[in-house]
Specification:
CATH class of one domain: Alpha Beta
Strand content: 25-35%
Distance between the termini: 22 Å
Radius of gyration: 15 Å
CATH topology of one domain: Aminopeptidase
Helix content: 10-25%
Length: 150
């Protein structure tokens, strides 16, 4: 997937995010997870402050995003979370591009995710393997998946 020239991957620690970027990140997560997917959960889990934030902007708006949790914060391995793309920008490979960038940056370190079950095949194509039974997280079926990331 070749990103539009205007689409650049940005990587920032929490303290380096601008107020506008943080607001847009929270808004995007709210629109997709709460409004679209109807998941009622506490998005502000106080983990963002310890994460690296990867995102793609289009016309000064964040359209795809994920956060990287350091090893030991949620799992013993690094972890991806809050993987989200604005509805209007889906099927363009943006989330895949972000995940591959993280995997490149963390080469040699395993990455564990708690993925929504319906995305199992998607994550398998990126090198993740199922390592748990199905469980409910915020009333949504999830599975833990691990990529050795060698």
């Amino acid at each position: 997937m070749c990103l539009n020239m205007a689409h650049v991957i940005l990587k920032k620690a929490f303290n380096d995010l601008t107020k506008e970027e943080l607001y847009q990140i929270l808004d995007l997560r709210l629109r997709v997870f709460v409004e679209e997917q109807k998941i009622l959960y506490a998005d502000t889990d106080f983990k963002d402050q310890k994460c690296m934030h990867y995102f793609i902007m289009d016309n000064h708006h964040i359209v795809s995003y994920l956060r990287v949790l350091p090893a030991g914060l949620k799992y013993k391995e690094h972890s991806l979370g809050r993987v989200v793309t604005d509805f209007s920008f889906r099927q363009q490979g943006m989330a895949t591009t972000l995940i591959k960038e993280v995997m490149k940056d963390l080469k040699g370190y395993p990455i564990r995710i708690s993925g929504q079950l319906y995305l199992k095949d998607y994550y398998e194509k990126l090198g993740f393997k199922t390592v748990s039974d199905v469980y409910l997280e915020e009333e949504v079926p999830h599975i833990e998946m691990l990529a050795q990331n060698n």
